[in-house]
User: Fold these one by one.
Assistant:
Number 1:
Amino acid sequence: MMKKQKLENYQMVGVDAAKSKEEKMKIIFDKFDVNKDSHLGITELLGWIMAVEPTLSNDLQRLPFLLQIYLGNPSFLAGSKGLSYSGFTHIYEEGHRNFDHDFNTINIQPPIHQGYAIRGILQQQQQRSLMLQSQLQQQQQQQQQQYQQHEQHRSLMLQSQLVQQQAQQCASLATNTFSNNLRNTTQQVGGGISSAGPVSNIGITAQQMGGVISSAVQVNSYGNTMQQVGGNLNSAAEVNKNVNSAEQENAVKDVKSKVKYDGSHPELAARLEKEILDTNPGVKWDDVAGLSEAKRILQETVVLPLFMPEYFQGIRRPWRGVLMFGPPGTGKTLLAKAVATECGMTFMNISCSSLCGNWYGESERLTRCLFELARAHAPTMIFIDEIDSLCSVRGSATEHETSRRLKSELLVQIDGLNNSNSTSGKMVTLLAATNFPGNLDEALRRRLEKRIYIPLPDFETRKKLIQINLKSIELAPEVDIEQVAQKTEGYSGDDITNICRDASLNGMRQKIAGKTIDEIKNILKSEMLKIPVTMEDFLEAVDKIKPTVSSADIQRHEKWYSEFGSS
Ligand SMILES: Nc1ncnc2c1ncn2[C@@H]1O[C@H](COP(=O)(O)OP(=O)(O)OP(=O)(O)O)[C@@H](O)[C@H]1O
């Protein structure tokens, strides 16, 4: 019976029963020409399918999948209750039908693997294209920024050249008034305002700059940038040289040299005199505890050549320079001051900041000037503290151009020092100190012929140090300095000084504890001074204050000493 109906059905749609399953299905769909019968009810369709292939009715879940295979099109459902064969392709192409909805209405699960996968791919493609778009935008922005920077640098370079030309014009126009009144003179020359204008584009207003001269200064402070773009730095520097003179001249007027300085940079000499010169550092040998070996070497290298210059000639010439190295707070500066005081030398205490100028070439000029000034004030001791920060290893990737030039100048000056000492009799001694001897430039290390290790204080030195620190302080009879010295092994001289200071304040702390300011004011000063420092105060202070030098530090210094030390 079933077979008979099936055959009838075949005949109805003109299907040949001998054909394959796929062919049969295709014929069924082809029958529904969109022009004639654009709408096929789902029930009708299923009826047809079941008639042709009754096994499919048990597998409705697979139906969409099969239809898709037969039709070669993944999307085939249309309408809420029906299927339009021709609409399948439209729907798919336009992509505006809700697959889930369509399938739900006929109570069939959507072909997840197909429809969603396609939707996912579409979404991915969309996201990718968005990402590419944003990357493109970023690239465009970067290119724009680079271009702007380049243009800015180019403009700075032009500024520098312009300013140079203007300054040269000024120099030829008004030689007399130039140094005192450069700003006006430049403005008279004209073009000054226009140069201030573009510079202000980089964030500095014309007022702040105060016209052309300031712009020269500002442009120069961009030295590196200009160098990067191949700017003519030297010319900017030359302009600057004039500018410095002009700006500093007024300051110089107030500073009267104590001695006659006839070098080429009186303005810088005046500045250095103000900053670093100490004609009497006021530290005696006895103020320095221990360090007898260091004292002996310094006597031989500095004190004796000063007293017996005729003996220290030829092969006996004084050592070019002396380096003191060791952990911080061990008395290097103190020792240098003591030598200068004992020998009646002028003491010049130089740190990195004293020799670092703001303008192009200023650091070298300052260095040159320092040695000229030292000769003018001779006998002089130039003490360069933390020389490693001024003269670290050259040629490193991080080395700055200014610092490289400064180092070269320093080396030249140290060489010159040696010659002038032997001929003019004006003794200038270079004493340097560092906590990082390993960072020193090799050429400088060679010139600092004596390299003295200033170690942590030993037991005897610690005892002496405590006595020096407490010489004017009332001590309780039970205070055992030896015990304090034992307890402070590994402490630097500076640490021990701090312990003594802390211990000596403890009596006062106890005395004022819990009192109001008025009550404290009423305590007699003499009463306060009489409070003796007890052993307990010391022990408390030692407990509170920890040593600042690590054993790794000591090892580092000892290693360097065994390699490069010279005593
Ligand atoms: N041998 C010492 N005799 C007397 N006081 C000392 C001694 N060593 C250190 N001090 C004390 O420590 C303080 C710091 O010493 P100084 O500045 O000379 O150390 P430094 O070695 O130059 O330190 P840095 O390396 O940090 O510059 C001194 O003012 C002094 O109070």
Number 2:
Amino acid sequence: MSQTIALAPAPVDDPAPDLLHRRDGALRMEGVPLTRIAEAVGTPFYAYSAQALRAGYTALSGAVAPHGVDVCFAVKANSNIHVLSEFARLGCGMDIVSGGEMARALAAGVPAERIIFSGVGKTEAEIRAALLAGLHQINVESPAELEVVAAVARDLGQSAPVALRVNPDVDALTHAKITTARKDSKFGIAIGEIPALYAAAAMRPELNMVGLAVHIGSQILDLAPFRRAWAAMAGLVRDLRAAGQQVGRLDLGGGLGVGGDGHSGPDLAEYARIIADTVGGMGLALNVEPGRWLCARAGVMVARVIYTKPGDGADFAIVDAAMNDLMRPALYDARHAVEPLAPPRQVGATTPCRLVGPICESSDDFGTYQGLGPLQAGDLLAFRDAGAYGAAMSSTYNSRDLIPEVLVDGAQFRVIRRRVGIDEALQLEQPGPWQRAG
Ligand SMILES: Cc1ncc(COP(=O)(O)O)c(C=O)c1O
Ligand SMILES: N[C@@H](CCCC[NH3+])C(=O)O
């Protein structure tokens, strides 16, 4: 008889608590056993639940929309065009950071006027393409960038819609490598420099100063830094308005973290309340630009154990996925919960397993896990919360394949990015002609 067993208590605000469940012993995503996908596409692979993507957007926009806040998905978290389309069909806007991401968002059917262009190093060509496409807003991060936006807009006979990205000097209390608004950060413009820059820019017909933006970091679980940053932004808006400036929009950034490792995850109602408390009622058009929160939990990466060998304190399981496929553990010491696709052979106290990949780097190490039971070659493992910054950050280091991405919807699945192997990679290395230089 079929029996559904929840694997772990659903974290607070989990948009799709039954996204992964075990039925008849098999780990399934929606109605599809993950082993079935492994048979179809081989391992390793990424799988995303369309239902969880949709439910995530609905939950977040449902929490913030009553406070007049629009949601723009940060494309960098998962830029697969079919993932973007799931959000686009629901009316979600997009936050992009490159011409490539703009092309993806437009191709996914997102209207240009729903797209915000963030990023500290936009090139002149990217700025030109953004203005030609008619994007909603360009978030400018330096006086030098503002000059390039002005020059391109003048050349095109446009008035570019510009928000200044502010560095409010707030510690996001997250991993140092994903903290973006401390005084020494490369992002944004120091809050003290904004009034003069905004006032000067507002005088220029080629610049349409629409407002301000802020983004303090990523995987933020303690919401207090959001309150500090947005309160500072509210103060800045008041100061600018008192000085006679028009400030119509405020982009509150992304950064909302997802739970795991014993943390239940932030409370959406509290997040929305902080927005209302700090910047509500000011007549501002508000938006947030979350990446991770909308897609991390919708995805898993599935890998196969190639070999096991005894280790010091933990047995090694060498899996066929590596840091090139999922680099978050190597880069940020991130931990992704792991579920075996079949029930563990032995429950209770077994030797812990250290899951490592085949790459010739000691940092190719996903961490040490209890409770997986003794693993054997051929065993399949699902790394959870891999829908954000997984495939999007992958590479072909060690001449490894780019692994397939699969979208699950109900009882069906389909490949949404096929495996890119060495044959195709070698094609890219066809030499061009020698060019004389002097
Ligand atoms: C400007 C900007 N907006 C939004 C995001 C999305 O961040 P997260 O995925 O943590 O929500 C990022 C990445 O940190 C970013 O740099
Ligand atoms: N890529 C990071 C987050 C940084 C987001 C971009 N500023 C992660 O996987 O957690």
Number 3:
Amino acid sequence: MTFELPLAAPAWQPLPDLPGATLRYAPRAIADPDAWFARLRDEIAWERHRIRLYGREVDSPRLSSWVGDADAVYTYSRTRFVPHPWTPALGALRDAVSRWCGAPFNSVLCNLYRSGADSMGWHSDAEPELGPEPVIASLSFGAVRRFRLRHKRDASLSLDLPLAPGSLFVMAGTTQTHYRHDLPKTARVAAPRVNLTFRAIAAS
Ligand SMILES: O=C(O)CCC(=O)C(=O)O
Ligand SMILES: [Fe+2]
């Protein structure tokens, strides 16, 4: 089976205007998302990352893998991650997403939500090595899950977006400065989901 990625930019769908946020959403950026899901699930070296929660070290509620160029070392939740090398699928997706976003991504955080019991808590992707106005490009495969975005000081400014399989969601500009995002648990979803967030990390 071959995996074709289009050269042309995907069709962007309008999103509600949120002051201080720069967002783009293309619900069908990647064709045949189920085949990509199976390939990513099998090809990525999934790990149980430890995170710090209220001062205690616990297993994060999902599986993850940090992948990128050798110098793209990332500190997340006070843990230093040295990247795994690019896999063929992740390299092909990086090239397509970099072209569509006009941004030179050198790394990707891969997350596997094994079921609706797995989640990601409220955070902004504002680590210093991402720079002041990072472009973060997110691809989703498998189960549809709700992605929520909320302004840090004004909770009336928010977005609740079901991320479709094969979709591309981009956060840029000052989004991380002014907003947090999460992926809540849900009892309604039993199926797994893979999410890839492509990032540009300053070499350390
Ligand atoms: O799974 C998602 O859609 C969100 C992932 C995320 O926020 C992150 O990797 O920083
Ligand atoms: Fe994030």
Number 4:
Amino acid sequence: MAYDAFLLLSFGGPEGPDDVMPFLRNVTRGRGIPEERLAEVAEHYHHFGGVSPINQQCRDLLDAVTAEFGAHGVDLPAYWGNRNWQPMLEDTVARMRDDGVTSALAFATSAFGGYSSCRQYWEDIDRARAAVGPGAPAITKLRQFHDHSGFVRPHADAVRAALAGLDPARRATTRLVFTAHSIPVSMAETAGPDGGRYTTQLDETARLVHAAAAPDLAWDLVWQSRSGPPQVPWLEPDVNDHLAVLADKGVTDVVVSPIGFVSDHLEVLWDLDNEAADTARDLGLGYARAATPGTDPRFVAMVRELVQERLAGAARETLGTLPHWDVCPLDCCPAPRRHKS
Ligand SMILES: CC1=C(CCC(=O)O)c2cc3nc(cc4[nH]c(cc5[nH]c(cc1n2)c(C)c5CCC(=O)O)c(CCC(=O)O)c4C)C(CCC(=O)O)=C3C
Ligand SMILES: [Fe+2]
């Protein structure tokens, strides 16, 4: 198969105060998110001047990937499009068509399976191609990468760096707390062809990061950034509740490592550096937050390697044991039941 472009596919975020509500309406259209939750999340964005860091992080990643391609003879022009905010994917796909692109490889900024993190990006591609119509390039998504060394090693180094900021005399009572975005339990159950892929992959990432960073410490995998109406069950425990349980058990210090994410975007900054850090302080726990890969050279090299896997049929780099595939089976990670908007 010949490919003639690379596409960075991401979530999108507002770039000023006036963007915040329209962005949030794009994210939540038809998903039954209560109005109070929207108002609360809008406040998180306004706290940062209405600017999400995710767009600059995408620009930085795109620049780094372009340089990495150049240095390794990967001759593909690089494009960027988002699900929820400008540059919107359908505008990017129209530009690709105008530039004569016929077949592109897309890197989505999530490592995991599941509807929100994988299937929905395939749907974004389908919708954007349909909107562009005849002449839209073919676009396929690169595979999930939860156990790639280019994802695991930057997380592991970040955990080590965060640990170095805590009191070594209390290491025996220090704990690793891995976090990922909570999702509805029903979405977790239908993730992957056999169900449970989001949580199973996160468990594997946590094990790999733990083994590489601090095998002497105990660890847990917990959830952050819950959304949705209260009567719908989402993955638990929430990181804040979990910190209270740990403090009760005699844990003195925590390193919180957001392995569910590729960059320090708003949900990492607000929900961890603000909320969870406050919770830890109230509980008297020492607290350090580990960084995400961002533009770590190993992560950037991973993107290039995922492309080369597909260009050259090169072997897959995997540290774990879960299966991988290039194109998701059509029946995995189905869309949750839609609410009326
Ligand atoms: C699994 C997952 C990831 C990780 C995979 C991936 O990266 O794709 C992720 C990432 C992100 N989520 C983000 C922001 C938001 N997510 C929301 C709502 C939701 N997230 C969900 C899941 C996930 N979300 C779900 C099931 C909902 C309920 C509504 C729905 O079913 O879609 C809402 C609505 C308000 C709220 O209720 O929180 C917002 C504003 C941002 C941007 C941050 C920035 O601006 O820097 C990013 C990277
Ligand atoms: Fe989200």
